[in-house]
Write a structure and sequence with these properties.
The complex is a heterodimer of chains A (117) and B (112).
Chain A lengths: L3 E4 L2 E4 L5 E7 L6 E7 L6 E7 L5 E2 L8 E7 L2 E6 L8 E8 L8 E3 L3 E5 L1
Parallel strand pairs in A: 2-11
Antiparallel strand pairs in A: 1-3, 3-8, 4-5, 4-9, 5-6, 7-8, 9-10, 9-11
Chain B lengths: L3 E4 L2 E5 L4 E7 L6 E7 L5 E8 L4 E4 L2 E6 L4 E6 L8 E8 L6 E3 L3 E6 L1
Parallel strand pairs in B: 2-11
Antiparallel strand pairs in B: 1-3, 3-8, 4-5, 4-9, 6-7, 7-8, 9-10, 9-11
The chains are: A mainly beta (117), B mainly beta (112).
């Protein structure tokens, strides 16, 4: 089946630094990728929709200048958490839309646990 | 390795019917179970989250139950509407910060 690779799986950083998370579709081209965030004991929540070659669409309440999304190619989207703070500590997961698959199935990365000290 | 299965894969019902979507998982040692809705070409919308210590959660016309010992969860949709047409996904998480394992989804069509 289709594979989505997300890297890194875990990252610990100091407050004020920036962290980049990569999401790659390994065996298909994904014009659309999604970024989610999950705080402890809460459900996975959509942050933004990333479209190749255009600006990302952010969900209400998500700061676009804080969470920079770049989808420069059909197989790679990146999420950069800028000037990270402890409240940004969360589990981030990406998914890629497989357009040729029946129902345009979503495939998910394995997630990134971000801890900001 | 955790495996999640959803039955049925597709379901078509007339408007107004009550319906049940099923989700089963192979490893009962879960942290939580989540139900999502996916509209074509869109990301996931979270519907309900059930912590491992809980038995059910309700939101409007939706009710989700969890039976960890048998490895099952059901999503009950009351008085279905055409706007409920979507793919419904369940996912289990074994620990906070760990990857979610998704079922294959149930594609629901509610006919007016």
């Amino acid at each position: 089946g289709a594979v989505v690779s997300q890297h890194p799986s875990r990252v610990i950083c100091k407050s004020g630094t920036s962290v980049k998370i990569e999401c790659r579709s390994l065996d298909f081209q994904a014009t659309t990728m999604f970024w989610y965030r999950q705080f402890p004991k809460q459900s996975l929540m959509l942050m933004a929709t990333s479209n190749e070659g255009s600006k990302a669409t952010y969900e209400q309440g998500v700061e676009k200048d804080k969470f920079l999304i770049n989808h420069a190619s059909l197989t790679l989207s990146t999420l950069t958490v800028t000037s990270a703070h402890p409240e940004d500590s969360s589990f981030y997961i990406c998914s890629a839309l497989y357009p040729g698959h029946i129902n345009e199935k979503l495939f998910f990365g394995s997630g990134t646990q971000l801890s900001v000290l | 390795k955790q495996e999640v299965t959803q039955i049925p894969a597709a379901l078509s019902v007339p408007e107004g019917e009550n319906l049940v979507l099923n989700c089963s998982f192979t490893d009962s040692a879960i942290y939580n179970l989540q139900w999502f809705r996916q509209d074509p070409g869109k990301g996931l919308t979270s519907l309900l989250l059930i912590q491992s210590s809980q038995r059910e959660q309700t939101s409007g016309r939706l009710n989700a139950s969890l039976d960890k010992s048998s490895g099952r969860s059901t999503l009950y949709i009351a008085a279905s509407q055409p706007g409920d047409s979507a793919t419904y996904l369940c996912a289990v998480q074994v620990d906070a910060g760990n990857m979610l394992t998704f079922g294959g989804g149930t594609r629901l069509m509610v006919k007016p």
